[in-house]
User: What shape does this take?
Amino acid sequence: MFHVFWHDFLYTPLLNFLIWLYNGPAFGNLGVAIIYLTIIIRVVLLPFTVVSERSKILYEKLGQKIDKIGQDFKNDPIQRKETIRKVMREHRVSPWAKVTVLGVQALTLVLLYQVFIGGINGKLGDLYSWVAHPDFINTNFLGFDLGEVRNLFWSGIVGVVLFLEIFIDYRSKEGGITKSEVAYMIFFPAACFFTLWLLPMAKSIFILTSICFSFLVIFFRQIIKKKFKVGESVIADGKVKA
Assistant: This one.
């Protein structure tokens, strides 16, 4: 039952959409098709990303209040969690939007792994009748084979860019960076580098494109945060004058 659902409703549609992009907008370049696929997925998930970023901004603003709750209920973890949940609900802070974004991307990564494992040319029998059947899929992208594993170059680029993304994100955070965040900033990109090194290069292209999209999200979030600060200062000035 699960195998049928996975093959017919997840794997096969993604494979067909990827080949459709390869035949059409990507002009026979599979690497470009993967980039298009990633961008389309991120655009479709944009409403969830907006909600996630809004929640992140609100969570940062509620930081002092949450810390105070932690101090007030440090000996009662159950009450502490319940009080924090109540504050989150009052300010409509929800982690589920981010979970959705990450979950869909993780699912796509697994499906792409299935597409490339053993060679994509052997999977063309699963194409729909309305998708043009190419005689051969060119897996070369910028001189690299998308199905190649243990590719230091692309997995290394992902590790470095991911580190920069986390660093830029944390640098804009109010209150400075904690030791646990420094550890995360170092070890998470390193773990991603090693994992992607073991997987086909196509995964690195997918992750790298998604990170670049996230850079745009961070950029717009900084603009929104600045507007919030300006609005807060105007309100504060108004109160003082009153």
Summary: Residues 201-241 form the longest helix (41 residues). The chain has nine helices and two strands. The chain has one domain: 2-241.
